[in-house]
Amino acid sequence: MPEALPLQPGDPRRLGEHEITGRIGVGEHGAVFLGRSADGRPVAVKLLHLGLSGRPLADARFTAAFAAARRVAGFCSASVLDAGTQDDRAFVVTEFVDGPSLAALVAAEGPRGDTVLERLAVGMAVALAAIHRAGSVHGDLRPANVLLGPDGPRVTDIAVRSALEALGTPPSTTGEAPYYQAPEQFEGGPAGAPADIFAWGATLLFAATGVRPFSDMAPDEDPDLAPLPESLRGLVGTALARDPADRPTAQRILDRLLVEDAALADRLPASMVAEGRALAQGVRAPQPAPGPGPDEQATTLFSAPTPDTEGTALIPGLADPGTAVLPPVPPAPKARRGGHVLGLALSVTIGVLAGVAIITLVLWPRLGGGDGGSGGDPANVADGRPVAAIPGTFAGTWKGTAVNQNSGVSFPVEVTFQEGGKTAHAVYPKERCNGTLSLTRGTGSSLEMALRIGKPCTPGHIQVTRQPDGTLQYAWSRSENGRPVGYQGRLTRIG
Ligand SMILES: Nc1ncnc2c1ncn2[C@@H]1O[C@H](COP(=O)(O)OP(=O)(O)OP(=O)(O)O)[C@@H](O)[C@H]1O
Q1: Which of 41, 156, 174 is the pocket-test mutation for ligand 1 (most atoms within 8 Å of CB)?
Q2: Residue ranges covered by each domain of the chain
C-alpha cells in the first residue's frame, strides 16, 4: 500500500465496502483518505465536509450524480469506483494515483516545459473526451485536480461539482475553482462540456506560466499565449473563447493534436496516442490495465531528451501528497505535538522520496531555465535548526483555504511573512479580519506563532510548517473548556 499519514480519532475506519487505512489530505470540500478496496487495490476516498441532515433524498441524489462518471474508463482519469453516504456524510471512491497534483508540482518547481505541456494537453483532452463521451461533465477541472502519476496525467474529482450541486450546495466562490471557470459559469450558466474545455486551456496556461491566467471574476481579457508551445497556442486560444459555441470539443482537440499533427504524436507515449486517436474518431480504444509503476512506453517517452534542458535539471524531491497534512487538531501537548508531527511527516517523506520523487523528477521535468518555482526549497524542508526570526524560505504572501473539520466550515486565509521579521500579517477576507502573528519559537521548517486578531475571528496558536510539495501547512488551535479545537489548511505562495 502507498504511504499515508495515520488516521485521527474520529476518522472513519470503513466507508462503504472500503477499508480506510490513512489520511492523504484535506481540501475545501472534503478530506481524502487512503483506502483499500475489497480486492486489495489502493483507492482514494473523498469524504465531503458537508453534513446531509435536512437534505431530502441526499443519498439517491448524490449517487445519481456519479452514474455517468462511473462509466468513464481510461488511463488519463482516476476512475470513479463508488459513491455513497454513511453517517450523515457523502463519500466518493476513486482510483488512487501515486503522484503530486499539477498545482503542487508547479508551486514547488515552477512552470513546465514544452514536452510536459504537450503531454498534459493530450492527457487532459483524453480524459475530457472520455468523460463527455460517457455523458458526464467534469465541472471543476483545475491544476489541483490533475494528478501526475507514474504513467501520465490523471484527471480526478470527476463530477464532484455536480454531486455537490445535487445536494443543494452552490458552486464555490472561494478557493481555486473560480480562477478556471468559463465566463458562462459566472453568469449562472451550467458547467457543460464547453466549460471543461475552457478549464483545459486555463490549466495549460497555468502549467506554462506558474500563475493563474485569470482573476476570480469573469475573464474579460485575452491572456498571453506566448508561453505555450506553438503546437498548442491556437487550440488553447480557441478553448478560451468567451462564447462556448466557439470552443472546440475534446474530440476535436485530439483530432488536431494527434491526427493532424503527427509530429506531436511522435513525442508522446504510444498508449496515450492510441487512446486519443480512438476517442478522436469516436471509438473506444482498448483499455490498458492500470499498473502501479511507470509502463515501458511512458518511461521511454517521458524521459526522452528534449531540445531544452528538461530532464537535466535536478529537482528536489516531492513526496506523496499524504505527507503534506498535519492532524487537524493537536491530540497531545503542544511541545510534543510539534516534534511528533514533524517527525512523522519526515519519516513518511523519507520513505516515499525515493519512489515518487524520482519518478516525478524523470517524468515531469520542469521548464529549462525555470526559476525553481515559488515554493521555496522542498529539499530542505527537514531543516530543524532553531531560528530567532522568520527564515527567507517563508518570505512572501501565501494564500489558501482553511477547513474547520468539526464544523465543516471552510474559509480563505492569506498570510504575509518578511524575512528576518518576528511578526507576520494574517488576513481572513471572508470575515474581514486582519491579525498579527508573533513568532514564539520555530525552526527552519516550522514556526509557532501567536495570533492576535479581533472579532469575529478568534486569537489562538498558529503552527506554520513547510511541506515537501512547496506549500505551507497553516494550523490554528486553542483549548476551549480543556478540549482542543482547531482548523487547518494548505497555503500556496502567490507573491
Ligand atoms: N485519486 C487520488 N489519488 C491520490 N491522491 C489524491 C486523489 N485525489 C485527491 N488526492 C490528494 O488528496 C489531497 C486532497 O485533495 P482534494 O481534492 O481534497 O484537494 P483540493 O482539490 O485542493 O480540494 P477540493 O477539491 O475539495 O476543492 C491532495 O493532496 C490530492 O492531491
Answers
A1: 156
A2: 14-281, 392-494
